[in-house]
Amino acid sequence: FFCPAGSPCGLPEIIGYLNGTSIQHLFNIKTFLGTFVSCVLAVASGLFCGPEGPMIHLGALLGCGLSQLQSDTLGVHLQIFTRFRNSADKRSFITAGAGAGIASVFHAPIGGLLFTLEEVSSFWDIRLAWQTFFCCLMATFTTDLLSSSLYGFVYRGHFGFFEAEKRILFWNLLDMNVLAFIPTILLGMLGGLLGALFVSLNIKINKLRMHFFNSIPKLSLRKTSRLLETVLILVRILLMFCMSPHLFLCVAAAALLVENGKQGIAYLFKRGAHEEFGYTSLCTALAFYFILSCWTAGSAVASGLVIPMLYTGALYGRIIGLILVSIFGVQTNEHGAWIDPGLFAAVGAASFFSGVSRLTISLTVLMVSMLS
């Protein structure tokens, strides 16, 4: 009703704009506020989505606005930065802002640079690479600096003290065995198949969604229906949580689904907890997360797909790791330490992310930034 341009994920619109498609109201203050509020409420409410798509959109909005220093909405047209008021420089600042958005989410400046190179922009040169990388560095540094002293909106002291354990999920590297490549290859194939299934289902759901909404003649009813669909998704999630003691045969599955995406991924990546999650909890959480995240993507809420992709892949990766533990047992010696469900959860997360997005280089850098 108030900000239709801020309701989608944001990434396809940014890619479309940078490749020559003009989209109305994509870069204005109203869209910025709508996207920001929608993203915060969607992630905080427990919807199966992540902040990365809207953050890319918000970063691009800041790149566009701060480089132009003019706003038709506010009636502001400052004479500063007039040299940047051309399509080439405007596109460069939007690209840098989009990279800063993804870098701030994952604390990965190089990953943000490579993501924009591989996924976002079609026009690239060495000047834009330096500009985007510096912007990603500043975004990551600013996020870390604020996180060093603030927990939510509560000041906890130690401003500027960067705690390594807040960013590093895996402290030590593992000596690998050649046998580890067998389940890794299987996880890669599984990620490709499930990724293709996810994309296919999402396309079909969105076609049905658009067919249903377009069949409603009155515009106000159509917008109301889109709003009610999002409410329905949230109600189903709330009902699922309320029924979790009866629906799930164990508390572990409910814990996986109740936690926010990042915390849940950290649980699944946890090393040394071979039997913390059983087959029932992992399979139940996988089924619910796969279906509901597929349904949420494309609805009228500012949401991202990266966290759901990593979460889904981590779930079936940990299942594969649990199968290996069931076959070989819990290994404590250095030669068998690679048989760890947490390790294969990380591999599974990368495989599903790659299967859906078809990213390779930037995905590898993002995963390395997260895990080391």
Automatic annotation (TrEMBL):
Transmembrane domains' residue ranges:
31-48, 93-116, 128-154, 178-201, 231-257, 277-297, 309-330, 342-368
Q: Which SUPFAM superfamilies match?
A: Clc chloride channel
- Domain of life according to the entry: Eukaryota
- Can you list the GO cellular component terms from the UniProt entry? membrane
Q: Does the record's keyword annotation contain Transmembrane?
A: yes
Membrane disposition: Multi-pass membrane protein
> What InterPro entries does the entry give?
Cl-channel/antiporter, Cl-channel_core, ClC
Q: What is this protein called?
A: CLCB protein
Q: Which organism is it from?
A: Balaeniceps rex
